[in-house]
Design a protein that fits this description.
Elements: H1 13-19, H2 23-31, E1 33-35, E2 39-41, H3 43-47, H4 52-66, E3 73-77, H5 81-92, E4 96-99, E5 111-118, E6 123-130, E7 139-147, H6 151-163, E8 166-176, H7 181-187, E9 192-201, E10 206-208
Parallel strand pairs: 3-4, 3-7, 7-8, 8-9
Antiparallel strand pairs: 1-2, 5-6, 9-10
Helix pairs in contact: 4-5
The structure holds guanosine-5',3'-tetraphosphate.
Guanosine-5',3'-tetraphosphate binds at residues 39-42, 47, 79-81, 118-121, 145-152, 176, 181.
């Protein structure tokens, strides 16, 4: 599968189905770095520098997975989710809404909100989205870069439920299966597709769910 590493050309459907299976895993093995505390550093392609050709391939895959589900809105949370959600929005021709973590002057009082605990940072954030941008007629695909304890996804699901929007599914680039957030979301009856699920990792090896 080396031929995907450099250019990630747009592929016909039948080929994209094959290549998508291991795309993210290969990228993690090539460029990811396991840091102490169970953190995977992917700053070279996802979290700080963005490999845009790779991002487009990721978005094509997520769009393929959820095409035909009637999704009319992509929802994510600032900040790292925005790039991948925007790429997915382009592929699915759907607007992208991102929940804010801090109330700013351009978010007025009429918001849905939820408290999200960050396992990684050990902080609580109130996330919010304006009632103008999430409504009862929306069929939402929730997208994020990382799925760890799942608190961000659960907060976003809560915002959808407050709005009466239907959650068609969740899709994350990388799921840390050993933190079980994905299991929790699936147990809620929500379809959750991650492009790579890591069941174990240490500084010498990364084991993916097959
Ligand atoms: P959860 O949402 O699944 O519960 O996860 P958690 O609270 O632990 O994640 C908090 C933040 O850390 C999130 O970003 C998440 O994307 C990120 N994160 C979690 N595990 C990893 C990891 O192994 N590697 C990297 N690079 N990031 C990880 P955030 O705080 O919301 O910040 P932002 O980057 O989106 O602004």
């Amino acid at each position: 599968m080396v031929y995907y590493r450099q250019t990630y050309p747009r592929l016909p459907f039948c080929f994209s189905e094959v290549f998508s299976l291991r795309l993210m895993e290969e990228k993690i093995l090539a460029e990811g770095e396991v840091l102490p505390g169970g953190i995977l550093k992917v700053g070279s392609f996802l979290n700080q520098q963005i490999d845009v050709a790779f991002l487009r391939a990721v978005a094509e895959e997520i769009a393929r997975l959820f095409g035909g589900c009637g999704v009319n809105k992509i929802l994510t949370i600032e900040s790292s989710g925005i790039a991948i959600a925007t790429a997915v929005g382009l592929e699915m021709n759907a607007p992208v809404v991102f929940a804010k973590k801090h109330k700013t002057s351009n978010v007025d009082g009429d918001v849905y909100s939820a408290t999200v605990h960050s396992f990684t940072h050990n902080t609580d954030n109130t996330i919010m989205v304006s009632k103008d941008y999430l409504t009862g007629s929306d069929r939402v695909l929730i997208v994020d870069d990382f799925l760890a304890a799942g608190n961000a996804l659960k907060g976003l699901i809560s915002l959808c439920r407050q709005a009466g929007a239907k959650v068609e599914g969740c899709s994350c680039a990388i799921e840390k299966g050993f933190q079980h957030g994905g299991d929790d979301v699936r147990a809620m009856g929500i379809r959750c597709e991650s492009l790579a699920v890591i069941d174990e990792m240490n500084d010498t090896s990364i084991k993916f769910r097959s």
